[in-house]
Design brief:
By secondary structure, the protein is of the alpha/beta class. The protein has a single domain (48-243), classed as Rossmann fold, CATH 3.40.50.150. The chain is 40% helix and 20% strand. The protein contains nine helices and seven strands. It has helices spanning 8-18, 24-35, 50-63, 69-80, 101-108, 121-130, 166-176, 191-201, 213-222, and strands at 89-93, 113-118, 135-138, 151-157, 177-187, 225-232, 237-243. The protein has a seven-stranded mixed β-sheet, sandwiched between helices. β2, α6 (121-130) and β3 (135-138) form a beta-alpha-beta unit. The two termini are 29 Å apart. The structure holds S-adenosylmethionine. S-adenosylmethionine is lined by residues 49, 52, 56, 94-96, 99, 117-120, 123, 140-142, 157-159, 162-163.
Length: 246
């Protein structure tokens, strides 16, 4: 199903009434002017993610309580080790309750831009309350309502296994990356542990599987990306990729 483009004024009205809002008017004006995002009706998008949205919506209120100190320490290590420079434009895909916001904001400073994107409105409500992002958008990562070549960094933390069509989603994210931008797929847990958690959780995520780096490399290449750094250890998984040269 296609997506419906809204005019700028109705986009502003639409986002304040139906989408996640924080400092709504200022944020939207800012987003429109600086990030160049184009707003789409969520309802006109592919509905493949609805089941997952419901799954994560019902976990949202307890999500922050599940952020364990050891996991946060590894996440801090992963994010600070990326070398994201001040003033970078960063997209946090599947931002959930905004666990990365507090790590990224100090790195980016006042000139950087941080946008969180998630399908779960309830998760986003917590992310907005936590603060740190310039804008939070409720959207499917496969159809990001964002302009081409907008972000220097796109971070997919603990979300890749949940994408319905991994290659289509990677392609869509690549479109949003600048030509020398960087895509990060990371987890602050090992691959086997992640896959076991999904199997045990069951329901909408039971089949969601984090591929080994060789399989992920195939998917990245199909999406026009190539891996430049891979860690697949017992306590973390980090794959860093950049757009392939055409
Ligand atoms: C396991 S949680 C991780 C949240 C956060 N990144 C963290 O580390 O706490 C996965 C998040 O990805 C979101 N998500 C799943 N599929 C998505 C998709 N196709 N597009 C955008 N967000 C998605 C879920 O709503 C959920 O908030």
């Amino acid at each position: 199903m296609g997506q419906a483009r809204m005019s700028a004024p109705s986009a502003l009205l639409g986002i304040t009434s139906h989408w996640v809002h924080f400092d709504a008017f200022a944020a939207l004006c800012y987003a429109h002017a600086h990030i160049g995002f184009t707003l789409y009706f969520a309802g006109a998008c592919d509905m493949g993610w609805r089941e997952k949205q419901a799954f994560f919506d019902q976990l949202a209120d307890s999500w922050e309580a599940m952020e364990r100190p050891d996991m946060l320490a590894r996440l801090t290590d992963i994010i600070t080790g990326l070398g994201i420079p001040p003033a970078a434009r960063v997209l946090d895909v599947g931002c959930g309750a905004g666990v990365l916001f507090g790590l990224l904001r100090p790195l980016l400073g006042k000139d950087g831009r941080l946008v969180g994107l998630d399908i779960s409105r309830r998760m986003l409500r917590h992310a907005v309350a936590r603060g740190g992002a310039d804008l939070c958008i409720q959207a499917d990562a496969e159809h990001p309502p964002l302009r081409d070549r907008t972000f220097d960094w796109i971070i997919c933390n603990a979300v890749f296994p949940h994408f319905t069509d991994s290659v289509a989603t990677l392609r869509a994210l690549r479109r949003c990356l600048t030509s020398n931008g960087t895509l990060v797929i990371c987890h602050a847990n090992g691959r086997e542990a992640i896959n076991a958690i999904h199997r045990q959780a069951g329901g909408a995520v039971a089949q969601d599987c984090l591929p080994d780096p060789a399989a992920l490399t195939v998917l990245l290449r199909q999406a026009g990306l190539h891996p430049v750094h891979v860690v697949d250890s017992t306590d973390r998984y980090v794959v860093i990729a950049q757009p392939a040269r055409e």
